[in-house]
Amino acid sequence: MKNSASNSLIIQALQAHAQQLLPTVTQVFSVLQYGEIVHQRIGQTNTVHTKKSQNTPTQHIRKTGYQGLTRATHSQFGHVMIKWQLVSHASHDSSDLAHEIDVLRSLNLLSQTQNHSAAIAPLILAHHKLDVQALGQSQHLTALVMVYYPNGSLAKQLSRQKYPLLTNKQKQYFIKQTANLIANLHNTGWLHNDIKPSNILLSYTSIDSNHIVPDLILIDFALAEKVDKPIKAHPFGTPAYLAPERWQGQAATVQSDIYAFGIMMVKILTGARPFNINTQSSDPMIDWTIQHCQQPIPRLPTEYSHYQFIIDKALAKRIEKRYQTMDKILLDLDRV
Fold first, then answer.
1. Does the keyword Endoplasmic reticulum feature in the UniProt annotation (predicted)?
2. How many CA atoms lie within 13 A of 278 on its CB side?
3. Could you give the CA distance from residue 260 to residue 194 in angstroms, rounded to a whole number?
4. Over 50: is that where the pLDDT of 61 sits?
């Protein structure tokens, strides 16, 4: 009951702030020549900044900001999706969205120079950085403009309503294309660190296996890191997809993304994740740690048993027993 009451207060506060923020954000986007503006999501972000000085102990200052997702139109770009973040001036240089823009620039450039036949990530159409007055103080607004994908994410295809309509051929397609997508990302030198169905978009409206099939692209690179320079040792990411070593304080690796892919592979095949916790848990982080670090790898239904050896190796608790590269998973997928 205590957690429920606390969450209710947080939601009420966010709704109150949203009523003040969104008209300001709408006005800014209108000035930038965007129309038909529809705000789809808004949430709070928390960043911790370290303040050091010679005469005082190191201070860790928590800064609260806001991040949203907005659909709009533009005369040059057509239908677009705008991901935006509003933070105080003291923290805008280290905002997640500023980092994501840098990652996408790198991936877009690689795609252009190496002539990749399929994109890994969405193309940046534009990005904006400007100062605005919001919630009674000066704030920094960062906005990332990308193509709008009306077909939505892979999570939508795995919803309770749509999952029963998927054929085994379509499931196999999603698994192989996702594996190929992650392998291409790793081969460019990046870790994603938040692999999950909602971060994979479908670029075509039809998924009829006899006609047009969708291309997949990765989104949400806020937690992305260089393969050879991981720095986040704390368990950042989505708990349901976070590898055992991340819960134990280790930095992200290729194997962390591989584990998340294994979770997603089970979800695609069976319609459910292999590990779950009670939504009313009093200590969800402890419960997730137990699930990922101690619970055995589930057995797949008989009709998917030929994938079991891949699941076992992708979800191995110990890194050294897990697949070492996504390319090796692709080889095994070709064999089943």
1. no
2. 6
3. 8
4. no
Answer for the pair 5, 119: CB distance below 8 angstroms, yes or no: no
| Distance separating alpha carbons of residues 180 and 190, to the nearest angstrom | 14
Tokens 């695609």, residue located: 268
For the chain, the domain total comes to 2
pLDDT of residue 12: 65
Range of the domain at 37: 31-50+58-147
User: What Cα–Cα distance (Å) separates residue 295 from each residue in 44, 107, 228, 236?
Assistant: 32, 36, 30, 21
Is residue 121 over pLDDT 90?
A: yes
**Nearest partner of 253 among 237, 273, 264, 240, judged by Cα:** 237
Q: Which residues are catalytic?
A: 194
Sign of CA dihedral 31, 35, 36, 42: negative
Same domain, 173 and 278: yes
pLDDT tens figures, 294-319: 999 999 999 999 999 999 999 999 99
* pLDDT score of 89: 66
Cross-strand partners of 139: 88, 132
What is the layout of strands, in order, in the sheet containing 34-51? Answer: 34-51, 59-74, 78-88, 137-147, 124-134
Q: Please choose, from the candidates 284, 301, 295, 334, the residue with its C-alpha nearest in 3D space to the C-alpha of residue 317.
A: 295
From 114, 129, 147, give the residue that closes a domain: 147
Specify whether 179 is located in the same domain as 311.
Answer: yes
Q: Cα(158)–Cα(127) distance, rounded to whole angstroms? A: 31
Task: Please give the average per-residue pLDDT across 75-81, as a whole number.
Answer: 96
